[in-house]
Amino acid sequence: MRRKAGLVLLALAVFFTALSPLLRWYAFPRLAKVPAHQYQEMVLEAKDATLLDYATMRAKKVPKVTIVQTLKGNVEASERIEESAGRDVVVWDGLSYVVGPDGKMVSKIPERYIFDAHTQDPVHATGEMVDGDPVRRRGIEFKWPFLTEKRDYAYFDAQARITAPIEYKGTEDFRGLEVYSFEQTIPWTKVKFPKTLPVQGLTPEAVARTGTTRWYTTVRKFWVEPLTGAPVYGEEIHQEELRGGALLGDRDKVTAFAGHVKMREDYLTHTVDLVKSQRLLILLMTSYLPWGFLTLGALLLALALYLEARGRRSSGPAPTAAGEPSSVSA
Q1: 252, part of any domain
Q2: Is 314 part of any domain?
């Protein structure tokens, strides 16, 4: 009976020991993915900012500029692209909507971001765009890969339509979470005017005919939870200028926007809580369950060996009784 129990325990020990690396290195990369239907909303603010008054074409100080960013998963588009791409794809339809202190629209820039659901690498397909202009991204945007590493990444800048390094700066404790900090600097770059401008009837083409150009620079910072690859906080030191042309008269340039953009506190708290809950699921598949199965396999193996040893001792030759003649063979 002990022999059968030992064999069963030995089989279970082999099963759980083999399951440990399979779960971590085979199942996790295939199961961990961004859901196609995900919806996110983020509100950022730049307090004591500088904003262009298009009525006078003069820059003025304002108490606050608000940026509302939304990312909405387009399930229908992702399923259509998956048929030709042959892999799990996520399509995010994004919108960056900027509002002045009076509640009126300053600019709005739509965006379609298509990426691999598992690796977050960009997937190039029809519809990939920024503000209606087709683009071909390189590098990540919005989200880092699962199990983010302590290294620099390539990050796509939607304003300049370019990819530049975003540098790993170190590990920090952020509201009870261990996070990696990253920073990217985009130098002064000539960029396009948004297709939707705050002045009725004013178009980018009309501005271009005046010879006035738009320039942009930013220092972008993110604090990323490495297991989920989700940014828990972000901020930008953002500047825009209009330069030259008849639109500015005798001036060489005028500030269109300047401010330190930060995530609003209520959205920051919500994001941290959400990432903490998602982090537990990643830990289960990458640490808790693999190590637990490996430990369980070792314990089952030890118990199987113990029962086998007990069984061998109990099945040894029985001692001969005193005075009883023993048989002798020729």
Answers
A1: yes
A2: no
